[in-house]
Write a structure and sequence with these properties.
- This protein is of the alpha/beta class and about 260 residues long.
- The chain has a domain of about 170 residues: P-loop containing nucleotide triphosphate hydrolases (Rossmann fold).
- Helices cover about 35% and strands about 25% of the residues.
- It is built from ten helices and ten strands.
- A hairpin with a 2-residue loop joins strand 9 and strand 10.
- Helix 3 runs parallel beside helix 6 and helix 6 runs parallel beside helix 7.
- The longest helix is centred in the last third of the chain and has 18 residues.
- The radius of gyration is 19 Å and the shape is globular.
- The N and C termini lie far apart (about 40 Å).
Length: about 260
């Protein structure tokens, strides 16, 4: 296998980013391979969303480098990064509320000239999320929260990205909708070959769909491994998945059970 074949699609090296005087991430390095689903896990305030904002050019890092498909993108404008095939679906399901569902999808394809293929991609996202077909003429602002998340993800697909940055897709959604969203995330990855970097507080769901994971605490990566091995670690099970070992008879648990995300 050639050296080029081992090159990551996305690579961060020693990234530090801040909001004013508050440093949010400290020396973060991570890689996403072509066709991989990668996840970053951590509690609120750990710096997960800051990583995605730094990658997509919304936030300029204080130091370190970001490269995408071998090209340095650290100083590029966000619009230029989008044109390279890297799409950011931000937290909060940001859609154009006054535009119809179909027009929101077309906004995702605004840089494309292949109109026939655009039409086929619209049909494909309607296949992923049939409710969007039913609501195609409805203003996006009238959709439910789960439907807006479906639309935000579908709009990203319309740009034909090679890598999607997905920020807290389960935020505010019911368990049923969370499962449905992640099911489609896996289909997009498998059927389209799209790499995905997802930051998520639902650790159980993320570790079950992703290939590789990073654990972030206080702005630093403190652990990384395949998601299969992370799921088997006792500390990950206890802290992130809410799984505790059953104490021996007559032995009381040492502490209060952590809240399950």
């Amino acid at each position: 296998m050639s050296a080029a074949a081992n090159e990551p699609m996305l690579q961060l090296k020693n990234i530090e980013s801040a909001y004013g005087a508050v440093k949010a991430i400290r020396g973060v390095s991570l890689r996403v391979a072509p066709g991989e689903i990668c996840t970053v896990l951590g509690s609120n305030g750990a710096g997960k969303s800051t990583i995605l904002k730094t990658i997509s050019g919304i936030l300029d890092p204080l130091q370190g480098s970001v490269s995408f498909e071998g090209r340095a993108i650290t100083s590029l404008d966000p619009a230029e990064i989008v044109k390279l095939g890297l799409l950011h679906v931000p937290e909060g399901r940001e859609v154009f509320p006054l535009l119809s569902v179909r027009d929101n999808l077309l906004m995702g394809a605004y840089t494309r000239k292949d109109q026939d293929a655009v039409g086929r991609d619209i049909e494909q996202v309607f296949g992923y999320f049939p409710i969007l077909r039913d609501r195609a003429k409805q203003p996006a602002g009238l959709l439910s929260g789960g439907q807006q998340q479906m639309l935000a993800l579908s709009r990203a697909i319309m740009a034909q990205p090679r890598l999607i940055l997905l920020d807290e897709p389960s935020l505010g959604l019911s368990p049923r909708l969370t499962h449905e969203i992640f099911e489609i995330v896996v289909r997009i990855n498998r059927e389209r070959g799209t790499a995905i970097l997802v930051v998520e507080q639902n650790a159980n769901m993320a570790l079950n769909v992703a290939d590789y994971g990073y654990i972030l605490e206080n702005g630093r990566v403190v652990m990384e491994d395949s998601c299969e091995r992370l799921r088997e670690r006792k500390d990950i099970q206890a802290f992130y998945l809410g799984i505790k070992e059953t104490p021996a008879a007559g032995v009381q648990p040492a502490g209060k059970k952590r809240k399950v995300w």
